[in-house]
Amino acid sequence: MTSARASIGNTRNPETHAAILDAAEALLAEHGYAGVSMEAVARRAGAGKPTLYRWWPSKAALLMEVYERQKSLALAELEPGACAQDDLTEFVTSMIRFWRETPAGQAFRSIVAEAQAEPAALRLLRDEMLARGRANAAAIIHRAAETGEIAPHPDAEAMMDMIFGAAWYRLLTHRLRGTAEEMPRIVAAAFAAARPGGPLALPG
């Protein structure tokens, strides 16, 4: 049996931290969300179970970090182009492909469901994970305003609600197949609404 790796209280030892994420990722790929437990992750990583619970309050919180790590790698190759609308379309469709085609993406629906009953996991989901995604999208929208693709003062929050609301609706109702192909039309509608004179173009 692998001896337990060292940890120092709430300070995350980088080697142990990486081993735990690797173990959780491997178990997720092998067994799916339901087949992952904190006990199994600790055993696979050679870490103490108390260490996992000091660093992550629940399985959902741990797998959120696995999800974020995999998603960051999947989206790392996206580069800004000449057209902000195209960039936001590619960002959203890449996210949908990630949901559809990777173990962490496929588990995300279960992570969201479990977070509804776990206040700490819900705060992590809402205030960190979703906030980062919206910040990335907002940066693209503001660039579109600066370059004249849309009005100078767009309602960026409403635009993101239109785009991400459509994506999340399909995620949570098991309708991801074909969604990536639908998103260019939805992003185009949000951009059209934010052009001068449109309902999402705010007064200066």
From TrEMBL:
<keyword id="KW-0805">Transcription regulation</keyword>
<feature type="domain" description="HTH tetR-type">
    <location>
        <begin position="14"/>
        <end position="74"/>
    </location>
</feature>
<dbReference type="InterPro" id="IPR036271">
    <property type="entry name" value="Tet_transcr_reg_TetR-rel_C_sf"/>
</dbReference>
<dbReference type="InterPro" id="IPR001647">
    <property type="entry name" value="HTH_TetR"/>
</dbReference>
<keyword id="KW-0238">DNA-binding</keyword>
<dbReference type="InterPro" id="IPR009057">
    <property type="entry name" value="Homeodomain-like_sf"/>
</dbReference>
<dbReference type="GO" id="GO:0000976">
    <property type="term" value="F:transcription cis-regulatory region binding"/>
</dbReference>
<dbReference type="Pfam" id="PF00440">
    <property type="entry name" value="TetR_N"/>
</dbReference>
<dbReference type="InterPro" id="IPR011075">
    <property type="entry name" value="TetR_C"/>
</dbReference>
<dbReference type="Pfam" id="PF16859">
    <property type="entry name" value="TetR_C_11"/>
</dbReference>
<dbReference type="InterPro" id="IPR050109">
    <property type="entry name" value="HTH-type_TetR-like_transc_reg"/>
</dbReference>
<keyword id="KW-0804">Transcription</keyword>
<protein>
    <submittedName>
        <fullName>TetR/AcrR family transcriptional regulator</fullName>
    </submittedName>
</protein>
<dbReference type="GO" id="GO:0003700">
    <property type="term" value="F:DNA-binding transcription factor activity"/>
</dbReference>
<feature type="DNA-binding region" description="H-T-H motif">
    <location>
        <begin position="37"/>
        <end position="56"/>
    </location>
</feature>
